[in-house]
Amino acid sequence: MVCEINLQASEYLKYSKPTLKLTSVNFLLGRNGTGKSTLTRLIKEQLQNEFDVRIFDGFESLLDENRELNAVALGRENTEIQNQIKDLETKIQATKEENDDLAEKVQEAKSAYDSATKKLNNAMMNAAKDIKEKDNPRIAKTTYNRIDYSKERASAQRLSPQERTAFEEEAIGQLLKLPVALSSIPIDFQKLKERANGLLTQTVVESVRLPEFADNPQKTNFAQRGMEVHNRQKDKVCAFCGGELTQKRWDQLENYFSGKVTAFQTALNTCIDDFQTLENSINKITQYDSSSFYPSLRAQVADLNDSIGKSKEVARETILSFRTALNGRKDSLFQQVPPIEQVEWPDFKALTDIAQQLIAEHAGLSNTVRCRQDLAKEQLRYHHILEYEKKYEIVKLDQDAQKCETESGKLCKQKEELERKLSDYQENLEKLFGQIKDESLIAERINKYLRAHGEIGFQLVLQSEAERGFYSIQDSDGNIRPITKLSTGEKNIIAFVYFMEAIKAPRDTDKPFFLVLDDPMTSNDDTYQYLIISLIERYYVPLLYDRTTKNNHRGNQLLVLTHNTHFYLNVRPYKNNRFSDKIQYIHLRKGASHTQVVCVSDQKDDIHTSYDELWEELKFAYAENKPEFMWNSMRRIIISFCEFNNLSLNTIIRKSSDKLDSVLCGAFRKSMDVNSHELLDCYSETNGSTCEQIRGYMEQFFSGLNHSEHYAAHWCEHKDPGKSS
């Protein structure tokens, strides 16, 4: 059965296709932000009349703190199946004991390997310490350690005396620190100006009329000040005139100054305070010390400082005019004041932009000096590494560690085979549990899964026969504890098992199921993940082969959404059953203005490994005309390729520099720097390259290594008639 989802119904997120057809079993891979949750909502809205739509999107909707799971039918296990389960559990126990014996041998081998590795690490740590402490020039970062040394061993090479002297001179240089940006202004002057003018022109009407004030603001303010300095309960005589302060007079004054008058005074004070805050933020904007910039920028810095000084003076004058007017209105609460319209306010954002541009140019000059220094320091480190390899006998220690690792690996492989046998037993056991038809409690099924995990110290316990479906959490000592003590992963696995079991309960509808599993493996470790995969496989296999089961899978549909490539690769059927008219694979990729929806119809177009995904990202960036994204994907592909084939990227670049484009060589060299994972320097030099040129660089690289077939196979003859070189 095929159903169609109207993707245009999404109000905010836009998809590349107007509709999406879903078949019996659907697997969707998409990173966060590509619209998986939006698609789930559209399915619920558009298919709920035709299907019994069930959505799993975490434990929150299924598990409450010390609350019921859900009301579900309970049952009893079949006696014959239970006997088979006991026999299989006996075999599992015997296999576990055999596995424990082998585990001791594995531990001994690992201990020997750990000892050899420790000696090797200590030697490399001493060598790294010597390199880190070398001075005049300093050739390593202050955090240089054993790991850094290990990564650079393959690049070790001896320098001639002349080369060493030249690199030492190059490594000595002076860098200026990066200046800080201008302070920001947190208050919008235009909005504050409008608020102030509104207060200046606002009409305030007296609540009651007191003739003795005679429209005299000074008398009015004097009376209000008198109320502030006198206490109604304690003071009976006016401190100014000596007259009696009667309760009637207090009532008259309070009525006069209450309500809108007080609110207006508060608004005036707040506005005055905001102008003070604005002035304080402007005062924090300081001029730059020209000497903190490189000489070529100092004239521009002087001009900027002059503009800053003038702008601050203009701003202070404008603020003063508003504060004076607002204070005057405080003295004349019932008299309007003309608004202040013709004022000058500097463009501080423009000054900030100029400062940022100067700082960026300063950083660029620093990078030029830093790049030469880094290259020289790198070559000097490689020279000294070769010396310390001999001094600390690191090569011999490395060989000893590799020998121990081989022996440990051999035993580990034997243990893996035994664990695979144990896994088969566990799988058969799960099949038997799945065949239980009569009176099986879902809570008991959940407890079986938890006990099978082996390290979970709790179980679900029915509180009483009268409260069926209301379960407590009982630890291994028999104590009851709240569900809030469970971790997120534990809650998630309980909820997921419950979800998959609950759909087997009797329903009051004949509608087929449409199951949506939205990132079901969130916050679970590897063991939980494979348990989840097993439960999903048990559900979708009947959908693919039209098998009639007790739950009547005919007409049911499944959509599994995930952002995790590893989970996506493992939850699908095996290769020979992967593509048919009943199964579909969908990829969501975030573009500049929309999410691209890719329906994979052939196995060769699907994601196979994380390495394949990098190629897909590269081709996607090419199709979207995003050269800056292509550079990062290309770097990661080449580094992964070199590491997998035990190739030295630095050596390849040095030997192939006459064959490769100069831009490409420069980018690769900088990818070997300390901060290569960010590739900032590379981007700054190559942002002028087009997507087609970058693709050509990639093709050149693999062609230079005689791996053109590898490039062609992964690029898959990508065509885009709309692109030009």
TrEMBL record:
InterPro entries: CR006_AAA (IPR026866), P-loop_NTPase (IPR027417). Residues 19-702 form the Protein CR006 P-loop domain. It holds the Pfam family AAA_13. It comes from the Bacteria. Keywords: Coiled coil. Residues 71-126, 401-435 form a coiled coil. The keyword Coiled coil applies. The keyword Coiled coil applies. Transmembrane segments: none annotated. This is AAA domain-containing protein.
